[in-house]
Amino acid sequence: MNLREYQSFCPLNFSNQSKVWIYQSNRLFSISEAFEIETILNEFVANWKSHGAPVKGFANLFFGQFIVLMADETATTVGGCSTDSSVHTIKKIEQLLKVDLFNRQNLAFYIKDKVQLLPITQINYAWDNHFINGETIYFNNTITTKEGFLNDWLIPVKSSWLKSKIKALTID
Q1: Which of 56, 80, 121, 135 is deepest in the core (most CB within 10 A)?
Q2: Tens digit of each residue's pLDDT (9 = 90 or more) over 142-154
Q3: What count of other Cβ atoms lies within 10 Å of the Cβ of residue 100?
Q4: How far is CA 32 from CA 14, 39, 64, 84, 97, in A?
């Protein structure tokens, strides 16, 4: 599978500056859970409003483990209340499916053709024991725009902010 195929599911008619939020699950969702998530996300996007105006929104599950929300603000700016409503929806999914979608201490990598999670505290151990290297694909969930989602979500460890956390890479 080509990892970049995810890009084809991104809406073409959204501005490259559209806001993006990525929520990483602590585990892979089952097929039935994925359908349930899809229903919840579709309902949320259909009713997403900011100050009474409809938000041009998009939501999808990627790699069976990442919920991605996107808002094109060219028509309607997403305010605090509309952002809160999206967080409420994600918390609803979290509680319903008993997963953790807010733990930023777990990092995701693409290893041996699947998503693998690694606590940030184990990053040097994983490096020293060759579980990851500079070419290992990292899911950079810190991106905030559609352009970042398309170009910088999946990047090699050596090109990510993680390089400053890995002892061997900071020495080079």
Answers
A1: 56
A2: 999 999 999 999 9
A3: 13
A4: 29, 11, 11, 27, 11
